[in-house]
Amino acid sequence: MENWRFFRKRAPNAVVAAVVKADAYGLGAVAASRALAKAGARTFFTATVGEALLVRKALGEGPQIFVLNGPSVEDVADFAAAALTPILNSMAQIQMWAGRGPAGLHIDTGMNRLGVGPEELAPAMTALKGAALDLVMSHLACGADVKHEMNAVQLKRFADAATLFPKAPLSLAATAGALIGPDYHFDLIRPGVGLYGSGGLDADNPALAAAATIEAPILQVRDVNAGETFGYGATFAAPKKMRTATVAMGYADGYLRALGGRGYGVLGGAKRPILGRISMDLIIIDVTGCAEAQPGARVEFLGPGAPLDEVAALAGTASYEILTTFAGTVRKTGVRG
To answer: What pLDDT shows up at residue 99?
Structure first.
């Protein structure tokens, strides 16, 4: 996969893992894991045991699969059965896992979400004495803003805490952190959304390859006169005579309603603005002067012509939500992706 190789070049001295949680950000964990393994990935991260079991079945023995949410009483036996490696996030998980095999340790350095806090490091060391730690990790809260002062604060906290575990490989950076610079790379980086086409930054994202292309067909084309309105609420009126196309795509397919009047579809090599509100399963676009606009012609709403980060910015949300909602939903509804 081209984007995995991008991070391989970005962090030549670190292991480049692949995060395939949330069904590979909506693109399909089985197919994505196989493609990433073919590209060279040997370490994978999922959020849950259920996700990890699917990836293990897809990849077979060999690749290491970390489970970020760690073990629970209900699923602890599944780890051994499928050779999965838990990330231990709390003293309760550390005690539950004692003597069961290799694990990773999550140290909280300021996210205040998951991980062992500073006051728990000493008892964690005691509880983990003699245990095989395959990874010590943390997670940046503000990596999307490369200039945010919190990044340096967490870097120092992580480096200081990691001295307590001198034999364990270290990981701080996910997608955004990997782009900040080599000081954040340590032994392993964990790109997630970067593998699927977004740099994960608030601005100045690198040009990554589109991992998903989502298209939908035109159902109807019509000519409208100046002053006519479009869609629910009549929120848009034609300023002049126009040609419009109604496309079989809507918020039921995961295309966010917030993109009404802001987003676009790509047809004939050009961006075609969305007119008025997005309906449950229909969108109206401006195809004035576009000879390709005929019933059956396919309009691109995500892909090389409609980059993920640009679509997310227009919707006022994160690329993560666009992928997991839009790409994930169209895979279930049958819209071509």
So the answer is: 87
Residue 279 pLDDT exceeds 90: yes
- Is 284 found in the same domain as 179? no
Q: What is the pTM of this model?
A: 0.92
For residues 246 and 217, the answer to whether their CB atoms sit within 8 Å is: no
In a domain, 202, yes or no: no
232 included as an active-site residue? yes
Q: Is it the case that residue 131 has pLDDT exceeding 90?
A: no
* 295-318 CB burial, b ≥16 within 10 A, e <16: eebbbbbbbebbbbbbbbbbbeeb
- Buried-state track 184-208, b at ≥16 Cβ within 10 A, e below 16: bbbbbbbbbbbbbbbbbbbeebeeb
Q: Of 21, 25, 184, 251, which residue is the catalytic one?
A: 21
The residue annotated as part of the active site, out of 147, 232, 241, 332, is: 232
Which is more confident, 204 or 178?
178
Query: Domain containing 170: what range?
Result: 2-196
Active site includes 21? Answer: yes
How much is the average pLDDT of 284-306? 97
Indicate which CATH number applies to the domain containing 235. 2.40.37.10
Total domain count for the chain?
Answer: 2
End-to-end CA distance of the chain: give it in Å, rounded: 17
CA distance readout (Å), 155 to 111, 137, 180, 186, 323: 12, 11, 11, 10, 29
The Cα 236–Cα 229 span in angstroms is 5
